[in-house]
Amino acid sequence: MEKRIPVYPVSVLALVVLLASTAVAQNEQWLQYRSANEARQMIGDIGYQYLQPSAAKPEGIKLPSFSSGPPLFLEWKTPMVASGKVWMAFDKSNANGQYDRLYLDANANGDLSDDPVYQPYRRESSLSIFGPAKVTFESPDGPITYHLSMELRADSRQALCLLSPACWYEGQITVGGAKKRCLLIDHNVNGTFNDKSRDYNQSDRIRVGEQSGYEGGAVGNYVEVDDKLYKADIARDGACLTLTEAKDVPCGVARLADNITTVIASGENGSFIRKPENGVMKLPVGEYRVDSWTIARKDESGARWEMRGMSPSGGAGFTVAPDKEVSLPFGEPIYSTVQSSKSGSIYAFEQKLQGRQGERVVLTRNGSQPPPPKLHIRNRDGTYDRSISSEYG
User: Fold this and answer.
1) pLDDT per position as a tens digit, 306-339
2) What is the pTM for the complete model shown?
3) Would the pLDDT of 13 be above 50?
């Protein structure tokens, strides 16, 4: 019997393609671009880079006529331009004054002389703060706007520039049938909004709902909202995102000390805030680092004491696998150390709390820092025996 292959009209095929593309477009949720001078103070958890400007002139870059030498040059690395870098230069209008002019290659064409010149919006002694300074990236879909903030501190010894985003994306999105506020932040300051990394400090940030500025929020493969896991697809420029409910995600188990009450772990899967039950927490299979952990308990008077450990950048990670349990060495005991230094006849002492993995530990009582500890000093023969009250700062 002859097998017949059905032939569909071109119009039907076109309709199927159109419906499929429309469904994809409907899943995209668009956010509004925002910029401000004090974005880091307003939004929180906006990262920064400390860069050292140089007096050496960059090769292959067209320079303006500077007012008073020597200018300082700085390159900002970003994958959003073909060359991978955007140059800027700081100049003085008065040879004996501060750096008060910023030349920025805003269109990344290798020419510092054809763009607007910025003046600092705030000055403090040797500090000049510029921004928001606009950079325009070219893309197949049209120009993309991005704003930077530059805090230049220059004195007779050295010059340092704190570079941070002066922009973010935000808006209302629908997740699980509910409206949620969403923020996207370029935390690692490279011009893109979808960077994910096992290192929390190198991940961008996403906040959905009422999540606070310093509680996880690393961009990753997933976003957890109202105890549900969603597959996250974030546009490189941050303008839109797609969240699709993730089903049948393979998970594994990590075990901690029984008295740890909260853990924040991040990796390429994103950030997860967990409250372990009997020292056990569940995570999607992948590579992670513990960003912070908390132990909370009450004393005899009912006061709530909380000890929070924050892991150092680049600390050791762990792997969650579907077929075995991984143990995490965090929590008590906590080590108290005292360091001393001497300047002339003055001694200074510094006390620190440190976790087993080198975490910086902060202790609070009812949400506030308790009084600093006293220092008891006694010499060998007992002729000096005093308790000294210390203070923070």
Assistant:
1) 999 988 776 678 999 997 899 999 988 889 888 8
2) 0.83
3) no
Contacts of 11 (CB under 8 A, 6+ apart): none
Backbone angles phi, psi at 133, to 5 degrees: -95, 125
Tokens linked to 328: 């995490």
C-alpha radius of gyration, the chain, whole number = 27
pLDDT tens for 343-355 read: 887 877 788 888 8
CA dihedral 110, 115, 121, 127 (to 10 degrees): 30
Q: Quick one: three-class SS letters along the chain?
A: CCCCCCCCCHHHHHHHHHHHHHHHHHHCEECEEEECCCHHHHHCCCCCEEECCECCCCCCCECCCCCCCCCEEEEEECCCCCCCEEEEEEECCCCCCCCCEEEECCCCCCECCCCCEECCCEEECCEEEEEEEEEEECCCCCCEEEEEEEEEEECCCCEEEEEEECEEEEEEEEECCEEEEEEEECCCCCCCCCCCCCCHHHCCEEEECCCCCCCCCECCCEEEECCEEEEEEECCCCCEEEEEECCCCCEEEEECCCCCCEEEEEECCEEEEECCECCEEEEECEEEEEEEEEEEEECCCCCEEEEEEECCCCCCCEEEECCEEEECCCCCCCEEEEEEEEECCEEEEEEEEECCCCCEEEEEECCECCCCCEEEEECCCCCCEEEEECCCC
How far apart, in whole angstroms, are the C-alpha atoms of residue 266 and residue 203? Answer: 9
304-310 and 228-234 strand pairing: unpaired
Residue type for position 176: G
- At residue 368, what is the residue type? S
Structure tokens at 293: 């952990």
- Residue 245 vs residues 176, 200, 202: alpha-carbon distances, Å: 8, 24, 25
In which residue are the tokens 């800027």 written?
A: 88
Q: Which residues, 6 or more positions from 65, have their beta carbon under 8 angstroms from its beta carbon?
A: 113
Give the Cα separation of 141 and 134 in Å (integer): 19
- Cα 286 to Cα 319: distance, rounded to the nearest angstrom: 6
- Sequence spans of domains, the chain: 37-166, 335-389
